[in-house]
Amino acid sequence: MDRTVRLAVAEFAQAVPRAGDFQTGAFEACLNLGDQIHKQIQDQNSSDVSYRSEFPLKANFFAPGYRFVVSGRADGVFRYEDTATIEEIKTTFSLKRLLKEIENTDQHPYKLQLFTYCYLFQKYAGMKPLARLLVVSSRTGERQELELHYDKGAYERWLEAKLPALVEEQKRIEKRFARRKRLSKSLSFPFSKKREGQEDLMEYVESRLEKGCQTLIQAPTGYGKTIAILFPALKESLSRGAQLIYVTPKNSQFSVVLDAVKALKQAGTSPRTLVLSAKSKACIAEDELNCDPAVCQYSRRFYDKLDGTGAGEKLSRAKVLDGAKLKKLGEKGELCPYGLSLESVENADLIVCDYNYVFSPQANLLSRLLQVKRKRRPNLIVDEAHNLYQRSNQYYSPELSTTTLRAVLEKVQEYPANLREGVEDLIVRLEHFVASHAPKELNKPEVRVDMEALERLHDETTRWFVRAMQNESVDTRAVFDLFSAVDAFYRINDGDMESLCKYYTQDRDARILRVECLDSSSLLSQVYDEFHASVLFSATVKPFEFFKRVNGLSEEAASREFESRFPRENRKVLVIPQVSTAYRHREQSAAKVAEIIRRIAEVKTGHYIAFFPSYRFMEQVAEHFGDCLFELIVQKPRMPYREVESLSERLKSPLPCVVLAVQGGMLSEGMDFKGENLHGAFIVGPALPVFDHSHEKQREFFDKRYGDGFSYAYTYPAMVRSVQAAGRIIRSEYKKGLLVFVDRRFVQPEYAELMPKGWFEESVRELVSNNILSEVGEFWAN
After folding, report:
1. What is the mean pLDDT of residues 401-414?
2. 492-507 confidence digits (pLDDT tens)
3. What are the E-state strand segments in 663-747?
4. Residue 8: HSE in the Cβ half-sphere, 13 Å Cα cutoff
5. I need a surface site. Which of 178, 291, 318, 723 has the fewest CB within 10 A?
6. pTM
7. Taking 90 as the threshold, does the pLDDT of residue 732 lie above it?
8. Long-range contacts of 330-335 (CB under 8 A, 24+ apart)
9. Which of 779, 781, 782 lies closest to 572 in space, CA to CA?
10. Reduced to 3 states, what is the DSSP secondary structure of residue 49?
11. Are 619 and 634 in contact (CB under 8 A)?
């Protein structure tokens, strides 16, 4: 029996062999002009009774062992009694260049698409249609009608080459599926001994994956949860011939996954792994923003060079592909590394990437995967899942700032006069637009955006953007900065999201018109629907109900906390409730906090970190240390990475020190102090978000939706930061560590219930000591 393969016309109508440029579609995609122009032309033609837009067509094509079902919708069909015309509409920035390409390229994809529709129509209607390609400039609106000669015989000769190529491609796909299934059977856990608790976690994940469920997991740092979740997820994906997508909030966290892959390889099995970098980081061209093949030699003739240089074969054989390897291949073959990474997506068993690739509105990995969804649905792992909802909210929270506008104005002073004059006036009017929304009372900052004025400014910005991008001599960063800011602000205001707050703020230097997304959970839930199963995990996703809701998980999603299996005698947790670090008490508490840190750290000198709710309070406390038995190191705002590395090296020194840092900063999350001997951490107060208009709107929003707005907007995010900071200590079963929580709120039930399982038996009061220094001394003595 023939295997059935379903293909869209655009996917089917490609040159044999592949040829041409790598087109990101970045300009047209961000402008969305193609869709607008299509609709405008179709609406104009609708008055003609012979016209029908989006005409559905489908046909079967047979090759030995296969039936290819090809379907699509022609942009327009003019049908008369004894004749018909098939019209395809294509938009382009450069009309002249595209017309030349179509004229000089026999197997141009636009020609092939049009001829495929003609062939499908002829099979359907029994008449040979005329073929018309309508090419429209998205820059000027100019149109060119190309009456192309559709020759059924010539098309069938092309089919004679196309169908065998499709069969070979399908065999490669089936071979890939078979390889994955074999790999799944041979995949073995890469370590001879599992850590205590890992087996339980692996079995739980495996059972959830088999059912295709959404799952939320909390497990402490040092548990070995990365490999314990990755291994069963990869094994289940491969058993279906599918892929595993592993996303993290930061590129710096890729190394943990790659270490696991390395361990799998050493154990005898090696999944093909692709690490996706941001497009800007992958670029090796002089102008990273202009991917037009007329400008970028790495995009030009990409597919000719890919197959002609053997780079495609190297991609298919590679076991691990990361940014460095893709750049090396790109430089050697004059090929776009970003294009190479997308070419590698289907062949990869494991794809490791930033949240952006899957969850952002411009996500291109997800759209790429959707093209092959018919083949298998991948599994999804979300690492550090406590970060996801806030990152997602940011995707839908654009702003128009006079600071951004003035920065662009400064950059465009080097532009040619004809471009500069137009944009200078535009920026002035954009600044006026922002200022015009200033409320009469600044304590009531919410505004109603003037959509008529915004639409006019957006249209003008778009026209200038298109014109400026055609000029190879200008700084495209300034062009993109301006267009991106205006376009993002316009699109979110033009939509129908309910959970938006729009407000105006100003300070001495800037006026800002901002849209704040309070809850993007409904958009996240749509993403999970595209995967077989999703596993979200972190050391801090309690309470589960909160994180399930804000992360867009279904009500049926499972959740479970895994308790630390490290020896309890290696951990000492104390709560000191005699001090208040609430904002109104900080000045009077600063000296007391410094004394607590100093005296406890001097019981056993070594390396300690104290995490504070703000830089200001940290600096206030730092002033009260005086002479100590240790070096005092204070984290700087926006600390350069080289200084972070220097601090990491300092912590390996035997000389004692106490580091003062902030909760939620780079030292409290994502830093794995593996080789450093950290003796303890002080968590100075829960780091409640600042009481501002944004967080108060969140509180009101969640109050209406769930009835517990303060917890959702303040308490839960604060405790996530506090517990994450505490996780820097005791990262292996062989180390001892001290955790000291300083603030009276930590004994309140709404805060204490968010602490990890195992820190106390029945009541948080068990962690309150009447003789702190004595207990600390005994802990270190044993």
Report:
1. 90
2. 998 778 899 998 998 8
3. 680-684, 737-742
4. 9
5. 178
6. 0.92
7. no
8. 330/284, 330/298, 331/284, 333/305, 333/306, 333/309, 334/297, 334/298, 334/305, 335/298, 335/302, 335/305, 335/306, 335/309, 335/311
9. 779
10. coil
11. yes
Report how far residue 288's alpha carbon sits from residue 298's, in angstroms, rounded to the nearest whole number: 11
Domain 194-271+349-396+531-563 fold = Rossmann fold (3.40.50)
How far is residue 211's CA from residue 721's CA, in Å, rounded to a whole number? 33
Distances (CA, A) of 320 to 125, 230, 272, 751: 50, 16, 6, 43
pLDDT digits (tens, 9 = 90+) for 516-554: 999 999 999 999 999 999 999 999 999 999 999 999 999
Residue 576, SS3? strand
Measured distance CA(422)–CA(326) in Å, rounded: 40
**Which of 230-234, 731-735, 768-772 is the least confident region?**
731-735
At residue 642, the pLDDT reads 83
Q: Where in the chain is the domain with CATH 3.40.50.300?
A: 194-271+349-396+531-563, 568-781
Neighbours of 469 (CB within 10 A): 22
C-alpha to C-alpha distance for 502 and 496, rounded to whole angstroms: 13
Q: Which CATH architecture has domain 3-167?
A: Alpha-Beta Complex (3.90)
Q: Please, which residues have CB within 8 angstroms of residue 443's CB and are 6 or more apart in sequence?
A: none
* Phi then psi dihedrals of residue 81, to 5 deg: -60, -45
Listed as own residue / partner, the contacts of 320-324 with beta carbons closer than 8 Å and 24 or more positions apart are 320/258, 320/261, 320/272, 320/273, 320/275, 321/273, 321/274, 321/275, 321/348, 322/254, 322/258, 322/275, 322/277, 323/275, 323/277, 323/281, 323/282
| CATH, range 568-781 | 3.40.50.300
For residue 740, give the amino acid letter.
V
Q: How confident is the model at residue 457 (pLDDT cuts 50, 70, 90)?
A: very high
Among 510, 534, 15, CA closest to 246: 534
Backbone φ, ψ for residue 742 (5° rounding): -115, 100
What type of residue sits at position 52? R
* CA proximity to 758, closest of 617, 623, 567: 567
User: In whole angstroms, how far apart are CA 215 and each of 102, 410, 550?
Assistant: 50, 49, 14
Say how far apart CA 223 and CA 226 lie, in whole Å: 8
Q: Which of 366, 361, 174 is nearest to 276 (CA)?
A: 366
DSSP 3-state of 664: coil
What residue spans in the chain does CATH classification 3.90.320.10 cover? 3-167
H-helix segments, 707-771: 709-710, 716-726, 749-752
